[in-house]
Amino acid sequence: MSVTIKTPDEIEKMRIAGRLGSEVLDYITPFVKAGVSTAEIDKLCHDYMVDVQGCIPAPLNYAPPGYVPYPKSICTSVNHQVCHGVPNEKVILKKGDIVNLDITVIKNAYHGDTSRMFIVGETSIRARRLCEITYECMWLGIAQVKPGAHLGDIGHAIQKHAEANGFSVVREFCGHGIGAKFHEDPQVLHYGKAGTGIELKPGMIFTIEPMINAGKPAISELPDGWTIVTRDRSLSAQWEHMVLVTDTGVEVLTLSAGSPARPDIVAHLLP
Predict the structure, then answer these.
(1) Does residue 228 contact residue 221 with C-beta atoms inside 8 Å?
(2) Fewest Cβ atoms closer than 10 Å to its Cβ: which of 41, 90, 121, 155?
(3) Which tens digit of pLDDT belongs to each residue from 151-199?
(4) Choices 3.90.230.10, 3.10.105.10, 3.10.180.10, 3.40.190.10: CATH for 8-266
(5) H helices of 29-175, where?
């Protein structure tokens, strides 16, 4: 595993890209409502990234080995869709839906990757709780990040909280290193054993993006070659931040004016 330590110049570029990615989510928030298609949301985000921010939408035509090129500019995963949901004019948001919008921009050759959950109108108590617990899982993972900690500390904190609340962790997808490349080492598992995995060092940048299911962890891939769903059709939620290991702890690079506040559960864990 070859983990790149980012230079001060690279870190500054990642700060900019991360903030811009988060600002796309700020911009799109008022448009996420019943009656809007995920294709419309994708178009709005695309135009904002390109015309307002001067960014490149990283997912558009992205084609890792074994995949067809991704056809849209963002991912929109609704209800039982776990991740990589392809925007579609036939997918119309309705009251009670939960949807993850996953944004990755490229600015000055560096990536900014982040996602948030949105609730369309009023939803069930279980759906809202799933979104809230998943948000807490992400932040509990972030709170483990500091020099000398291990990747397994992140996964352990996430898994422990998810399962204590009756939910399950998706195993097949994970966080990842990021920089000039969309996906780099290390792989950041959202489950595992504390004290295992590589040691974290200042200058590492990676994503923490737990996918948490209301039912069982098993998943399936749809025929489009991208969209992942829960096999039991239970609801799934995901949040994502991009983080930097600093000399003293962690810096979240994907914050902006509209970012949700940190949950109370990490108040004693983070400065």
Answers:
(1) yes
(2) 90
(3) 999 999 999 999 999 999 999 999 999 999 999 999 999 999 999 999 9
(4) 3.90.230.10
(5) 38-47, 125-142, 151-164
